[in-house]
Amino acid sequence: xxxxxxxxxxxxxxxxxxxxxxxxxxxxxxxxxxxxxxxxxxxxxxxxxxxxxxxxxxxxxxxxxxxxxxxxxxxxxxxxxxxxxxxxxxxxxxxxxxxxxxxxxxxxxxxxxxxxxxxxxxxxxxxxxxxxxxxxxxxxxxxxxxxxxxxxxxxxxxxxxxxxxxxxxxxxxxxxxxxxxxxxxxxxxxxxxxxxxxxxxxxxxxxxxxxxxxxxxxxxxxxxxxxxxxxxxxxxxxxxx
Length: 241
Ligand SMILES: [Fe+2]
Description:
Largest sheet: 8 strands, antiparallel
Shape: globular
Bound molecules: fe (ii) ion
Low-confidence stretches: none
Structural class: alpha+beta
Number of strands: 13
Order of helices and strands: HHEHHEEEHHEEEEEEEEE
Mean pLDDT: 93
Helix content: 10-25%
Radius of gyration: 17 Å
């Protein structure tokens, strides 16, 4: 058997890591009472429901976005701190264009489980990179893929790419059973795909560095109803100010 096919994923060597639902259940969810867990799910429903259709490129996505700054005492400060843009070299579809999305709803930004999730991403970044939090932009993106039978949903750009941000977390929130596709793809180059996997359970996640390319396979609906897939992206980008 090819040893490469059986070895476990290693952040240092492979530039990405899969963080399963169980990690978040053990570390975050189980620390909260049932009322807080219920408020987390209702805040997610509110926030994803308030997103606006992404008209900047094709692919049937509903989005919202906010920036996050970590204060010296660890307090997370949310707001719109800078225009959102991907450079053209990272995104040939919408690169170079400032994009405006609605803000992430306050119910989610103030939710204790959401804050614990962001703090867990921050902790991972501090342990596994040399990024200085005082000089890091954190971006929070809610992305709802909305696929119909004859109108698929897909990412922008639609195939293998890197984001400009150095570290990116993808947290899967929920996918409707009727959805087809949505497989996560990691590639060491634009010619060599190294991993294909599925984020299925609530909070199944992965994190990647600039070492790898990524993509998600296009999504469709298996019946006449719209199929939704909700994810939260948390991005970390150095700045020099
Ligand atoms: Fe991306």
